[in-house]
Amino acid sequence: MGNRLPDNFLWGGATAANQYEGGYLSGGKGLSTLDAITGGSHTSPRRITFKTADGRTGSVTREEPLPEGAVGYIAPDIYYPSHVATDFYHHYKEDIALFAEMGFKCFRMSITWSRICPNGMYDVNEEGLQFYDDVFDECLKYNIEPVVTINHFDTPMYLADHYDGWANRNLVDYYLFFCETIFKRYKDKVKYWMTFNEINFLRSWTQIGIHKNDAATKAQAHHHIFVASAKAVKLGHEINPDFKIGMMVSYIPSYPMTCRPEDMWESMQFNHEREFFMDVQCRGKYPNYRLKEYERNGINLVTEEGDDEILKEGTVDYIGFSYYMSTVSTTDKNAAKTSGNQVMAYRNPYLKESEWGWAIDPLGLRISLNQIYDRYQLPMFIVENGFGAADAVEKDGTINDDYRIDYFRQHIQAMKDAVLIDGVDLIGYTPWGCIDLVSSGTGEMKKRYGFIYVDMDDQGKGTLKRSRKKSFYWYKHVIETNGEEL
């Protein structure tokens, strides 16, 4: 295995179009569900604005179902963070040059479905295709490998409003048309793809366009997404056999709070919620524990003939995953809780937490890499890992984010230990929010992840000027030494 990371290890950074790209109606783009979601904060949740059939407008939290028949609505007097975000659409050359200065070997980004197909159907927007051509060409100019997430938490609003999103089987065909369009267009520019971002977090109208949030609707929507992903993998390999097409899951390992067997069982159940989505996409079939759960809860999936074969034939080439934190499981419902990364979790008394309540657990990354690799024996790719914090700009313009450097130093060491000591097969590492962007969970700009600071506040005010943080220079040196010097 050697005593250093391979020379072709993909160091880079990660972003998402809905949090970074902006240009929400530029260049022929259609509306996305995430264009109708407002900002939020620690205490006030993000909300979806909607309009009912009789013309009334209102809003619900993003976890609540929309009223029957309601459609997404963009109110003129409300701030929507995704509309400008940090404006990659108009700054992509400047940003990619900064990534190149850091020495990126790859750049993980997503393509906005409604920028390519404004209504999400069979309409193709050439101006949108050309935008991503220009982005990929700019990356390749600096020998930066694009790593593309095909769908990152957004659904064309037309499909959400008129088809009930992924609850409708028709979205499989619409998604496949989208995939075929970009696979053929970029087959000589993009090698690494992922079908859906954090597939285990896909729920609600904002992410998958469904109006009901009950278990049966979500299970049916997930089935359609599984079928679409498997078909996309098969289609991509037919278009270019050299494509590497992966899945992406949010991986949050859970430790039992105590050695009580009941706590161990709770931990297993929690981990199954992540493993289920990997089981289907890596093993090509539903695991028995989930089928029995559906049976107990009276959930009867509507499937079509051939679905089982599709899942078997469309297993992924690699596993992309995000890792930010771990949690603990217990039967003690009075145990101290914390919310982090879209889950309600229990506090681990042995770990410190970020300002947003996320447990800081570098060893958990090594544990996660081993758990996933032992279960599936597939190459892995850490496509998100990072530290959200409220950065301060000093009077001289510097941003001294030593806390971020410390976080990354420990997590990269844990990653190296998993590869060099434990023998895990790892493709690369792309820290989340390599440049400041809008928080997915809260819609804030205050919660920053980047090596590059962007002048924008929580109300959408700022110059959008880019500035290098202290971590920029640190990560540049890490890449220069291939992770030898942390």
From TrEMBL:
Molecular function (Gene Ontology), one example: beta-glucosidase activity
GO cellular component terms listed in the entry, alphabetical order: cytosol
Keywords attached to this entry: Glycosidase, Hydrolase
InterPro entries per the UniProt record, alphabetical: GH (IPR017853), GH_1_N_CS (IPR033132), Glyco_hydro_1 (IPR001360), Glyco_hydro_1_AS (IPR018120)
Positions of the catalytic residues: E384 (nucleophile)
One of the GO BP terms on file: carbohydrate catabolic process
Family listed: Belongs to the glycosyl hydrolase 1 family.
Name of the protein in question: Family 1 glycosylhydrolase
